[in-house]
Amino acid sequence: MRKNIWLRAAAAACALAAPATAAAAAEPAGQVAGLARYHAQELDWHGCALGPEDEVGRELDAAGADCTELTVPLDYAEPGGKTITIALSRLPATDQEHRVGPLFLNNGGPGGAGLDMPLTVGAAMGDVAERFDLIGMDPRFVGRSTPLDCGWDIGTGIYSAGPDRASFAASAARARELAERCRRAAGDLLPHVSTRNTARDMDVLRGALGEDRISYLGYSYGSYLGEVYAALFPGRTDRMVLDGVIHPDRYRQTLLQGAEAANESALRGWADWVAERDDAYGLGASRDAVLAAVDRIHRAAAEEPLRIGEFRLDAHLLPIVFFGGLGSDLDERRAALAESAAVLARAAAGEQVEPGPGLAEELAWLTTGAGSRQASAQTAIICGDVAERRGLSAYWRDIQGSRAAYPFAGPLASNVNPCEYWGHPAEAPTALPDDVPALLVAATGDPRTVYEGTTEVRADWPSSRLVTVAGAAQHGLFGEYGNACVDARVNAYLAEGRLPARDLTCRP
Prior knowledge:
Order of helices and strands: HHHEEEHEHHEHEHHHEEHHHHHHEHEHE
Strand order of the largest sheet: 1-2-4-3-5-6-9-10-11
Distance between the termini: 19 Å
Number of helices: 18
Structural class: alpha/beta
Largest sheet: 9 strands, mixed
Protein backbone atom coordinates (compact mmCIF):
# COMPACT_ATOMS: atom_id res chain seq x y z
CA MET A 1 0.00 0.00 0.00
CA ARG A 2 1.33 3.39 -0.91
CA LYS A 3 2.00 5.91 1.83
CA ASN A 4 -1.13 7.30 3.54
CA ILE A 5 -2.85 9.11 0.67
CA TRP A 6 -6.50 9.46 1.54
CA LEU A 7 -8.02 9.32 -1.91
CA ARG A 8 -5.88 6.28 -2.65
CA ALA A 9 -5.90 4.22 0.56
CA ALA A 10 -4.99 6.34 3.53
CA ALA A 11 -4.90 7.31 7.12
CA ALA A 12 -3.90 10.89 6.27
CA ALA A 13 -6.83 12.90 4.86
CA CYS A 14 -8.12 16.30 3.69
CA ALA A 15 -10.93 17.88 1.58
CA LEU A 16 -12.70 21.01 -0.16
CA ALA A 17 -15.66 23.09 -2.02
CA ALA A 18 -17.14 25.07 -4.99
CA PRO A 19 -18.27 22.98 -7.93
CA ALA A 20 -15.89 23.25 -10.86
CA THR A 21 -18.24 24.86 -13.36
CA ALA A 22 -16.06 27.72 -14.53
CA ALA A 23 -14.67 27.20 -18.00
CA ALA A 24 -10.99 26.34 -18.11
CA ALA A 25 -8.96 28.62 -20.30
CA ALA A 26 -6.22 26.80 -22.16
CA GLU A 27 -2.71 28.14 -21.89
CA PRO A 28 -1.55 30.08 -24.96
CA ALA A 29 -0.43 27.86 -27.81
CA GLY A 30 2.98 29.52 -27.82
CA GLN A 31 5.29 29.66 -24.86
CA VAL A 32 4.22 32.11 -22.17
CA ALA A 33 6.56 35.13 -22.06
CA GLY A 34 9.40 34.49 -19.63
CA LEU A 35 9.04 30.71 -19.53
CA ALA A 36 11.50 29.93 -22.33
CA ARG A 37 14.42 29.59 -19.94
CA TYR A 38 12.53 27.02 -17.88
CA HIS A 39 11.61 24.95 -20.94
CA ALA A 40 15.19 25.12 -22.17
CA GLN A 41 16.86 24.18 -18.88
CA GLU A 42 19.32 21.31 -18.94
CA LEU A 43 18.43 18.60 -16.47
CA ASP A 44 21.29 17.17 -14.40
CA TRP A 45 20.39 13.49 -13.99
CA HIS A 46 22.17 11.77 -11.11
CA GLY A 47 21.79 8.95 -8.62
CA CYS A 48 18.64 8.83 -6.51
CA ALA A 49 19.80 7.61 -3.08
CA LEU A 50 20.29 10.40 -0.55
CA GLY A 51 22.15 8.09 1.82
CA PRO A 52 22.26 4.52 3.14
CA GLU A 53 18.90 4.94 4.91
CA ASP A 54 17.11 6.08 1.74
CA GLU A 55 15.36 2.85 0.77
CA VAL A 56 13.39 4.33 -2.13
CA GLY A 57 16.50 5.98 -3.56
CA ARG A 58 18.50 2.78 -3.30
CA GLU A 59 15.74 0.80 -5.04
CA LEU A 60 15.59 3.36 -7.85
CA ASP A 61 19.36 3.22 -8.28
CA ALA A 62 19.33 -0.58 -8.31
CA ALA A 63 16.67 -0.57 -11.03
CA GLY A 64 18.75 1.70 -13.27
CA ALA A 65 16.75 4.87 -12.64
CA ASP A 66 18.18 8.33 -12.19
CA CYS A 67 16.90 11.47 -10.52
CA THR A 68 17.04 15.22 -10.99
CA GLU A 69 15.49 18.52 -9.92
CA LEU A 70 13.40 20.69 -12.23
CA THR A 71 13.37 24.46 -11.64
CA VAL A 72 9.98 26.14 -12.08
CA PRO A 73 8.53 29.54 -11.14
CA LEU A 74 6.75 29.78 -7.83
CA ASP A 75 4.28 32.15 -9.50
CA TYR A 76 3.61 31.57 -13.20
CA ALA A 77 2.28 35.12 -13.46
CA GLU A 78 5.79 36.31 -12.52
CA PRO A 79 8.20 33.83 -14.13
CA GLY A 80 11.13 36.13 -13.42
CA GLY A 81 10.52 35.92 -9.68
CA LYS A 82 11.15 33.30 -7.02
CA THR A 83 11.69 29.71 -8.11
CA ILE A 84 11.09 26.30 -6.55
CA THR A 85 12.33 22.81 -7.41
CA ILE A 86 10.42 19.68 -8.40
CA ALA A 87 11.99 16.30 -7.61
CA LEU A 88 11.91 13.80 -10.48
CA SER A 89 12.91 10.24 -11.21
CA ARG A 90 13.29 8.51 -14.58
CA LEU A 91 13.53 4.88 -15.57
CA PRO A 92 14.72 5.18 -19.18
CA ALA A 93 13.28 3.17 -22.05
CA THR A 94 15.50 0.24 -22.97
CA ASP A 95 13.75 -0.56 -26.27
CA GLN A 96 14.89 2.52 -28.17
CA GLU A 97 13.76 1.09 -31.49
CA HIS A 98 10.12 1.10 -30.32
CA ARG A 99 10.35 3.98 -27.84
CA VAL A 100 7.06 5.85 -27.46
CA GLY A 101 8.25 8.70 -25.24
CA PRO A 102 7.84 9.77 -21.61
CA LEU A 103 5.03 8.39 -19.45
CA PHE A 104 4.31 10.82 -16.60
CA LEU A 105 2.98 9.16 -13.44
CA ASN A 106 0.88 10.55 -10.59
CA ASN A 107 -0.07 8.65 -7.45
CA GLY A 108 -3.08 10.75 -6.41
CA GLY A 109 -3.68 12.19 -3.00
CA PRO A 110 -3.65 15.10 -3.41
CA GLY A 111 -0.17 15.35 -2.02
CA GLY A 112 1.05 11.90 -2.97
CA ALA A 113 4.77 11.54 -3.65
CA GLY A 114 5.53 9.83 -6.96
CA LEU A 115 9.28 9.38 -7.04
CA ASP A 116 9.01 5.60 -6.63
CA MET A 117 6.27 5.13 -9.21
CA PRO A 118 8.55 4.04 -12.07
CA LEU A 119 9.29 0.94 -9.96
CA THR A 120 5.70 0.02 -9.10
CA VAL A 121 4.16 0.95 -12.45
CA GLY A 122 7.08 -0.53 -14.36
CA ALA A 123 6.47 -3.86 -12.67
CA ALA A 124 2.80 -3.76 -13.71
CA MET A 125 3.70 -2.84 -17.29
CA GLY A 126 6.14 -5.69 -17.80
CA ASP A 127 7.79 -5.59 -21.24
CA VAL A 128 5.69 -2.58 -22.24
CA ALA A 129 7.70 -0.46 -19.79
CA GLU A 130 10.74 -0.90 -22.03
CA ARG A 131 9.15 1.44 -24.61
CA PHE A 132 8.71 4.38 -22.23
CA ASP A 133 10.79 6.70 -20.12
CA LEU A 134 8.85 6.27 -16.87
CA ILE A 135 8.78 9.62 -15.07
CA GLY A 136 8.10 9.82 -11.34
CA MET A 137 7.35 13.25 -9.91
CA ASP A 138 6.93 14.68 -6.43
CA PRO A 139 4.53 17.55 -7.22
CA ARG A 140 5.31 21.03 -5.95
CA PHE A 141 5.60 21.11 -2.14
CA VAL A 142 5.43 17.29 -1.87
CA GLY A 143 8.13 14.77 -0.95
CA ARG A 144 11.59 15.85 -2.06
CA SER A 145 10.32 18.94 -3.88
CA THR A 146 10.45 22.38 -2.25
CA PRO A 147 8.63 21.75 1.05
CA LEU A 148 5.50 23.18 2.60
CA ASP A 149 4.75 22.32 6.22
CA CYS A 150 2.16 24.07 8.37
CA GLY A 151 3.46 22.52 11.58
CA TRP A 152 0.29 20.62 12.45
CA ASP A 153 0.07 18.22 15.37
CA ILE A 154 -2.14 15.84 13.38
CA GLY A 155 -1.65 14.27 9.98
CA THR A 156 -4.99 15.13 8.43
CA GLY A 157 -7.11 18.08 7.42
CA ILE A 158 -10.34 16.10 7.37
CA TYR A 159 -12.00 14.32 10.26
CA SER A 160 -15.42 13.38 11.50
CA ALA A 161 -17.84 15.85 13.09
CA GLY A 162 -18.37 13.44 15.95
CA PRO A 163 -21.70 12.54 17.57
CA ASP A 164 -23.32 15.89 18.39
CA ARG A 165 -23.39 19.67 17.97
CA ALA A 166 -20.70 20.21 20.62
CA SER A 167 -18.27 17.86 18.89
CA PHE A 168 -19.05 19.52 15.56
CA ALA A 169 -18.22 22.92 17.09
CA ALA A 170 -14.93 21.49 18.35
CA SER A 171 -14.10 20.17 14.87
CA ALA A 172 -14.82 23.60 13.37
CA ALA A 173 -12.52 25.26 15.90
CA ARG A 174 -9.78 22.79 14.99
CA ALA A 175 -10.29 23.52 11.27
CA ARG A 176 -9.89 27.24 11.92
CA GLU A 177 -6.74 26.59 13.95
CA LEU A 178 -5.19 24.43 11.22
CA ALA A 179 -5.89 27.05 8.57
CA GLU A 180 -4.33 29.75 10.74
CA ARG A 181 -1.22 27.64 11.28
CA CYS A 182 -0.83 27.36 7.52
CA ARG A 183 -1.16 31.11 7.09
CA ARG A 184 1.53 31.70 9.70
CA ALA A 185 3.92 29.01 8.47
CA ALA A 186 3.50 29.18 4.68
CA GLY A 187 1.35 32.16 3.81
CA ASP A 188 3.64 33.30 0.97
CA LEU A 189 3.42 29.86 -0.68
CA LEU A 190 -0.30 29.12 -0.33
CA PRO A 191 -1.54 31.22 -3.30
CA HIS A 192 0.69 29.16 -5.59
CA VAL A 193 -0.37 25.70 -4.42
CA SER A 194 -2.85 24.43 -6.99
CA THR A 195 -3.47 21.65 -9.47
CA ARG A 196 -3.25 24.14 -12.31
CA ASN A 197 0.29 25.09 -11.28
CA THR A 198 1.26 21.43 -10.97
CA ALA A 199 -0.02 20.93 -14.53
CA ARG A 200 2.11 23.89 -15.62
CA ASP A 201 5.11 22.29 -13.91
CA MET A 202 4.43 19.15 -15.93
CA ASP A 203 4.50 21.13 -19.14
CA VAL A 204 7.78 22.79 -18.20
CA LEU A 205 9.14 19.28 -17.70
CA ARG A 206 7.80 18.25 -21.11
CA GLY A 207 9.70 21.14 -22.64
CA ALA A 208 12.88 20.42 -20.69
CA LEU A 209 12.76 16.82 -21.91
CA GLY A 210 12.50 18.07 -25.49
CA GLU A 211 9.19 16.30 -26.11
CA ASP A 212 6.21 17.54 -28.11
CA ARG A 213 3.74 15.35 -26.23
CA ILE A 214 3.58 13.23 -23.10
CA SER A 215 1.73 10.07 -22.13
CA TYR A 216 0.13 10.04 -18.70
CA LEU A 217 -1.08 7.59 -16.04
CA GLY A 218 -2.87 9.09 -13.06
CA TYR A 219 -4.66 7.42 -10.16
CA SER A 220 -7.56 9.01 -8.24
CA TYR A 221 -6.76 12.72 -7.75
CA GLY A 222 -4.17 12.08 -10.44
CA SER A 223 -7.08 11.70 -12.86
CA TYR A 224 -8.11 15.28 -12.06
CA LEU A 225 -4.53 16.46 -12.60
CA GLY A 226 -4.58 14.75 -16.00
CA GLU A 227 -7.86 16.45 -16.87
CA VAL A 228 -6.45 19.84 -15.88
CA TYR A 229 -3.30 19.27 -17.93
CA ALA A 230 -5.38 18.31 -20.97
CA ALA A 231 -7.51 21.43 -20.50
CA LEU A 232 -4.56 23.81 -20.16
CA PHE A 233 -2.40 22.19 -22.84
CA PRO A 234 -4.67 20.69 -25.50
CA GLY A 235 -2.94 18.50 -28.04
CA ARG A 236 0.07 17.76 -25.83
CA THR A 237 -1.05 14.35 -24.60
CA ASP A 238 -0.47 11.06 -26.35
CA ARG A 239 -1.70 8.01 -24.39
CA MET A 240 -3.70 8.81 -21.27
CA VAL A 241 -4.87 6.32 -18.62
CA LEU A 242 -7.01 7.57 -15.72
CA ASP A 243 -7.65 5.05 -12.94
CA GLY A 244 -10.35 5.87 -10.34
CA VAL A 245 -11.66 8.93 -12.13
CA ILE A 246 -12.89 12.21 -10.64
CA HIS A 247 -15.23 14.39 -12.67
CA PRO A 248 -14.32 18.06 -12.04
CA ASP A 249 -17.91 18.78 -10.99
CA ARG A 250 -17.28 16.42 -8.04
CA TYR A 251 -13.97 18.02 -7.06
CA ARG A 252 -15.10 20.18 -4.18
CA GLN A 253 -14.28 21.23 -0.64
CA THR A 254 -16.08 18.29 0.93
CA LEU A 255 -14.58 15.92 -1.59
CA LEU A 256 -16.02 12.77 -0.02
CA GLN A 257 -19.60 13.95 -0.33
CA GLY A 258 -21.29 11.62 -2.77
CA ALA A 259 -19.23 8.63 -1.63
CA GLU A 260 -21.21 7.99 1.57
CA ALA A 261 -23.25 5.09 0.16
CA ALA A 262 -20.16 3.42 -1.32
CA ASN A 263 -18.33 3.65 2.01
CA GLU A 264 -21.26 2.28 4.00
CA SER A 265 -21.49 -0.57 1.49
CA ALA A 266 -17.75 -1.23 1.81
CA LEU A 267 -18.13 -1.30 5.60
CA ARG A 268 -20.90 -3.89 5.34
CA GLY A 269 -18.86 -5.97 2.91
CA TRP A 270 -15.91 -5.88 5.28
CA ALA A 271 -18.17 -6.87 8.19
CA ASP A 272 -19.39 -9.91 6.25
CA TRP A 273 -15.78 -10.91 5.58
CA VAL A 274 -14.80 -10.48 9.24
CA ALA A 275 -17.86 -12.41 10.48
CA GLU A 276 -16.72 -15.43 8.48
CA ARG A 277 -13.42 -15.26 10.40
CA ASP A 278 -14.71 -14.67 13.91
CA ASP A 279 -12.28 -17.24 15.34
CA ALA A 280 -9.40 -15.02 14.16
CA TYR A 281 -10.69 -11.57 15.13
CA GLY A 282 -13.43 -12.06 17.75
CA LEU A 283 -15.54 -9.17 16.45
CA GLY A 284 -18.72 -11.17 15.87
CA ALA A 285 -20.03 -14.09 13.85
CA SER A 286 -22.53 -12.10 11.79
CA ARG A 287 -22.55 -8.81 9.90
CA ASP A 288 -24.79 -7.21 12.52
CA ALA A 289 -22.55 -8.38 15.35
CA VAL A 290 -19.43 -6.95 13.67
CA LEU A 291 -21.16 -3.64 12.93
CA ALA A 292 -22.33 -3.51 16.54
CA ALA A 293 -18.72 -3.96 17.67
CA VAL A 294 -17.66 -1.11 15.40
CA ASP A 295 -20.45 1.04 16.86
CA ARG A 296 -19.25 0.27 20.41
CA ILE A 297 -15.75 1.40 19.44
CA HIS A 298 -17.09 4.70 18.10
CA ARG A 299 -19.32 5.31 21.13
CA ALA A 300 -16.45 4.66 23.52
CA ALA A 301 -14.19 7.08 21.63
CA ALA A 302 -16.91 9.73 21.81
CA GLU A 303 -16.99 9.42 25.61
CA GLU A 304 -13.21 9.46 26.06
CA PRO A 305 -10.31 9.08 23.59
CA LEU A 306 -9.21 5.49 23.22
CA ARG A 307 -5.78 4.62 24.65
CA ILE A 308 -3.74 2.52 22.26
CA GLY A 309 -0.23 2.34 23.63
CA GLU A 310 1.18 5.88 23.56
CA PHE A 311 -1.55 7.13 21.22
CA ARG A 312 -4.95 8.68 21.90
CA LEU A 313 -7.71 8.30 19.32
CA ASP A 314 -10.85 10.43 19.64
CA ALA A 315 -14.21 10.42 17.88
CA HIS A 316 -12.96 12.83 15.22
CA LEU A 317 -9.98 10.76 14.07
CA LEU A 318 -11.20 7.22 14.76
CA PRO A 319 -13.46 7.04 11.64
CA ILE A 320 -10.42 7.75 9.45
CA VAL A 321 -8.85 4.47 10.59
CA PHE A 322 -11.88 2.62 9.24
CA PHE A 323 -12.13 4.84 6.18
CA GLY A 324 -8.48 4.17 5.36
CA GLY A 325 -8.97 0.43 5.58
CA LEU A 326 -12.06 0.35 3.39
CA GLY A 327 -10.35 1.46 0.18
CA SER A 328 -9.93 -2.13 -0.99
CA ASP A 329 -11.78 -5.43 -0.81
CA LEU A 330 -8.59 -7.48 -1.13
CA ASP A 331 -8.16 -10.01 1.66
CA GLU A 332 -4.85 -8.51 2.78
CA ARG A 333 -6.37 -5.06 3.26
CA ARG A 334 -9.49 -6.39 4.96
CA ALA A 335 -7.35 -8.44 7.33
CA ALA A 336 -5.24 -5.42 8.25
CA LEU A 337 -8.36 -3.43 9.19
CA ALA A 338 -9.78 -6.39 11.11
CA GLU A 339 -6.58 -6.70 13.14
CA SER A 340 -6.70 -2.98 13.96
CA ALA A 341 -10.39 -3.15 14.82
CA ALA A 342 -9.77 -6.03 17.22
CA VAL A 343 -7.21 -3.89 19.07
CA LEU A 344 -9.57 -0.91 19.10
CA ALA A 345 -12.41 -3.07 20.44
CA ARG A 346 -10.27 -4.14 23.36
CA ALA A 347 -9.28 -0.53 24.03
CA ALA A 348 -12.97 0.45 23.92
CA ALA A 349 -13.64 -2.20 26.56
CA GLY A 350 -11.09 -0.60 28.86
CA GLU A 351 -8.18 -2.96 28.31
CA GLN A 352 -4.60 -1.79 28.09
CA VAL A 353 -3.50 -2.52 24.53
CA GLU A 354 -0.50 -1.97 22.30
CA PRO A 355 -0.85 -1.42 18.55
CA GLY A 356 0.75 -3.73 16.06
CA PRO A 357 3.37 -2.26 13.71
CA GLY A 358 0.88 -1.29 11.01
CA LEU A 359 -1.58 0.37 13.36
CA ALA A 360 1.24 2.08 15.25
CA GLU A 361 2.57 3.62 12.04
CA GLU A 362 -0.93 4.73 11.06
CA LEU A 363 -1.64 6.29 14.45
CA ALA A 364 1.72 8.04 14.54
CA TRP A 365 0.99 9.51 11.12
CA LEU A 366 -2.57 10.46 12.03
CA THR A 367 -2.37 11.71 15.62
CA THR A 368 1.04 13.40 15.78
CA GLY A 369 3.08 15.84 13.75
CA ALA A 370 4.64 12.99 11.75
CA GLY A 371 2.06 13.42 8.99
CA SER A 372 2.00 17.21 9.08
CA ARG A 373 3.88 17.87 5.86
CA GLN A 374 1.80 15.58 3.67
CA ALA A 375 -1.46 16.72 5.24
CA SER A 376 -0.42 20.37 4.87
CA ALA A 377 0.33 19.95 1.17
CA GLN A 378 -2.83 17.95 0.59
CA THR A 379 -5.01 20.56 2.25
CA ALA A 380 -3.27 23.44 0.52
CA ILE A 381 -3.79 21.85 -2.91
CA ILE A 382 -7.52 21.32 -2.54
CA CYS A 383 -8.13 24.61 -0.77
CA GLY A 384 -6.00 26.36 -3.36
CA ASP A 385 -8.18 24.85 -6.07
CA VAL A 386 -11.74 25.24 -4.84
CA ALA A 387 -12.06 26.78 -1.35
CA GLU A 388 -15.21 28.77 -0.57
CA ARG A 389 -16.95 30.03 2.57
CA ARG A 390 -20.14 28.09 3.23
CA GLY A 391 -20.97 29.00 6.80
CA LEU A 392 -21.05 26.41 9.59
CA SER A 393 -24.81 25.95 9.46
CA ALA A 394 -24.53 24.54 5.91
CA TYR A 395 -22.15 21.80 7.08
CA TRP A 396 -24.30 20.98 10.09
CA ARG A 397 -27.43 20.63 7.94
CA ASP A 398 -25.60 18.23 5.61
CA ILE A 399 -24.23 16.20 8.51
CA GLN A 400 -27.60 15.84 10.20
CA GLY A 401 -29.32 15.13 6.90
CA SER A 402 -27.00 12.23 6.18
CA ARG A 403 -26.56 10.77 9.68
CA ALA A 404 -29.52 8.39 9.62
CA ALA A 405 -28.71 6.81 6.25
CA TYR A 406 -24.92 7.02 6.60
CA PRO A 407 -24.02 6.94 10.30
CA PHE A 408 -20.35 6.16 9.62
CA ALA A 409 -19.63 8.12 6.44
CA GLY A 410 -22.02 11.08 6.73
CA PRO A 411 -20.34 12.96 9.61
CA LEU A 412 -16.96 12.38 7.95
CA ALA A 413 -17.88 13.29 4.37
CA SER A 414 -19.84 16.45 5.18
CA ASN A 415 -17.76 17.91 7.98
CA VAL A 416 -16.14 21.35 7.97
CA ASN A 417 -12.42 21.48 7.20
CA PRO A 418 -9.68 24.13 6.94
CA CYS A 419 -10.86 25.23 3.49
CA GLU A 420 -13.75 27.02 5.18
CA TYR A 421 -11.17 29.42 6.63
CA TRP A 422 -8.85 29.60 3.61
CA GLY A 423 -8.17 32.46 1.26
CA HIS A 424 -9.99 32.62 -2.06
CA PRO A 425 -8.33 30.53 -4.82
CA ALA A 426 -6.10 32.53 -7.15
CA GLU A 427 -7.83 31.05 -10.22
CA ALA A 428 -11.24 29.68 -11.11
CA PRO A 429 -11.66 25.89 -10.93
CA THR A 430 -10.95 23.93 -14.09
CA ALA A 431 -13.79 22.41 -16.08
CA LEU A 432 -13.48 19.14 -17.96
CA PRO A 433 -11.79 19.78 -21.30
CA ASP A 434 -13.42 18.92 -24.60
CA ASP A 435 -13.34 15.34 -25.82
CA VAL A 436 -10.05 13.60 -25.00
CA PRO A 437 -9.26 10.05 -26.17
CA ALA A 438 -8.31 8.31 -22.92
CA LEU A 439 -8.64 4.93 -21.27
CA LEU A 440 -10.72 5.19 -18.09
CA VAL A 441 -10.52 2.44 -15.47
CA ALA A 442 -12.88 2.07 -12.52
CA ALA A 443 -14.58 -0.36 -10.13
CA THR A 444 -18.34 -0.10 -9.61
CA GLY A 445 -17.95 -0.12 -5.82
CA ASP A 446 -15.01 2.31 -5.55
CA PRO A 447 -15.43 3.97 -2.11
CA ARG A 448 -13.17 6.94 -2.91
CA THR A 449 -13.86 8.24 -6.42
CA VAL A 450 -17.33 6.87 -7.05
CA TYR A 451 -18.11 5.03 -10.24
CA GLU A 452 -20.71 7.59 -11.28
CA GLY A 453 -17.97 10.18 -11.67
CA THR A 454 -16.13 7.93 -14.10
CA THR A 455 -19.24 7.34 -16.20
CA GLU A 456 -19.84 11.10 -16.31
CA VAL A 457 -16.35 11.65 -17.73
CA ARG A 458 -16.96 8.81 -20.20
CA ALA A 459 -20.16 10.51 -21.38
CA ASP A 460 -18.40 13.86 -21.78
CA TRP A 461 -15.48 12.27 -23.67
CA PRO A 462 -17.09 10.20 -26.45
CA SER A 463 -13.65 9.31 -27.83
CA SER A 464 -12.64 7.70 -24.54
CA ARG A 465 -13.21 4.08 -23.50
CA LEU A 466 -14.08 2.63 -20.11
CA VAL A 467 -12.82 -0.56 -18.50
CA THR A 468 -15.07 -1.50 -15.57
CA VAL A 469 -14.48 -4.05 -12.83
CA ALA A 470 -18.02 -4.97 -11.83
CA GLY A 471 -18.79 -5.64 -8.19
CA ALA A 472 -15.38 -4.65 -6.80
CA ALA A 473 -15.05 -2.27 -3.84
CA GLN A 474 -11.57 -1.23 -4.87
CA HIS A 475 -9.81 2.11 -5.34
CA GLY A 476 -6.87 1.81 -7.73
CA LEU A 477 -6.88 -1.07 -10.18
CA PHE A 478 -4.02 -1.19 -12.68
CA GLY A 479 -1.09 -3.03 -11.15
CA GLU A 480 -2.74 -2.98 -7.71
CA TYR A 481 -5.76 -5.25 -7.76
CA GLY A 482 -4.19 -8.28 -9.41
CA ASN A 483 -6.86 -8.22 -12.12
CA ALA A 484 -5.32 -9.73 -15.24
CA CYS A 485 -8.09 -8.38 -17.46
CA VAL A 486 -7.50 -4.76 -16.40
CA ASP A 487 -3.73 -5.03 -16.55
CA ALA A 488 -3.84 -6.57 -20.03
CA ARG A 489 -6.20 -3.90 -21.40
CA VAL A 490 -4.14 -1.03 -20.04
CA ASN A 491 -0.87 -2.51 -21.26
CA ALA A 492 -2.28 -3.19 -24.73
CA TYR A 493 -3.36 0.44 -25.02
CA LEU A 494 -0.02 1.76 -23.79
CA ALA A 495 1.87 -0.52 -26.16
CA GLU A 496 -0.19 0.06 -29.28
CA GLY A 497 -1.71 3.50 -28.71
CA ARG A 498 -5.14 2.22 -29.81
CA LEU A 499 -8.16 2.36 -27.55
CA PRO A 500 -10.53 -0.63 -27.41
CA ALA A 501 -13.35 -0.52 -29.95
CA ARG A 502 -15.92 -0.43 -27.16
CA ASP A 503 -16.23 -0.21 -23.38
CA LEU A 504 -15.26 -3.38 -21.56
CA THR A 505 -16.21 -5.12 -18.32
CA CYS A 506 -13.82 -7.29 -16.29
CA ARG A 507 -14.75 -9.69 -13.51
CA PRO A 508 -13.45 -8.84 -10.04
